[in-house]
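Dear support,

I submitted the protein below through the web form. The confirmation email said the job was done, but the results page showed an empty box. After a refresh the structure appeared. I'm attaching both so you can tell me whether what I see now is the final result or a partial one.
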Amino acid sequence: REGDSQKLRGPRAPGETVCTTLTFEPPDSADLARARPSPSPPATGSLRGRVLLDPGIPARAIELKLHDDSPAARRAALSPLLSADGAFSFSSVPVGPARLEVSTHGFLPAAERRPLFQARVEVAAGESPATDPVEIDLRGKVFAHTIALKGLERGHDFQASAFFAPARQSQRSRVYLRTGQLPVVLVSPWEALDVEIRVPGHRDVSLLDLRERATVELEPGIPVRLRLRTDGALPEPPRYLKATLVAVDDSHQGIDWGGPAFDAKGEILIYAGKPGPAKVVWIAAKHEGSGGIRDTVRAQYVVVRDVPQEQVFDVSLSAAELAEILRQLR
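What the results page shows now:
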């Protein structure tokens, strides 16, 4: 029975068998907690400092990462935001050796994915350490290129992309532009850039060997009407079928997710960024401003001419192809 105590003894005589029942009563959880105290959390501290930048370099374009190099931790990098004067502070990070890296925001080409600055630092205990702030001098090491865009209506809601690379090099970085981010400011370790800007509804803009700043007058894109022929039923709101054109020598970069959808007649008016051969890319969306590319159906191409008049192209989808494009919306 629970709580009984039995004393075991050997057999009284050869061949005699002794049987007994043992009952185990587990200890109370509170007793276990007292017997096995939880390990104390690792000591944490902070690191503070300042990044020195040339006038005109926005602090928001600089990214800092602190890698915990202690063998027991190997924590992921942390990225605080710089204040307007370049000050930064890491808090509640493990005490001990760490590696501080500084780079610019955005996607750098593979050959250039290295920090602008890196150093070994020691994180001191406490949230107000007595150690001197870390000073990082990037003056003369990063450059800002400002591009003013003219031709956008006041309050125009746009989603655009800027592609840039060191002058006369092919690998490109990309940054996304949104409403309120004008003028465009590109920050990089390169003094001269080749830049391409794509704003939906407008012609693409190319700037070669750009230094410091430029003003660009946006021009309307080339009007192209696609007429869809299909034996399937077009979706109705809130499900949308869209299409856009992508140059055959390009990838799906700079897609206008917020573009119009096919109307009840199966037509859509879009504006190409540049003339030449282009592939029709289908977009299925659950909301007017979103979408996902569906490239699993038969490829179709058009050739856009550099003329101001509207160009009309017939495209087609079978019921099976239309169902495949819309499959992700179910």
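Response: this is the final, complete result; the empty box was a page-load delay. The two ends are 61 Å apart (CA to CA).
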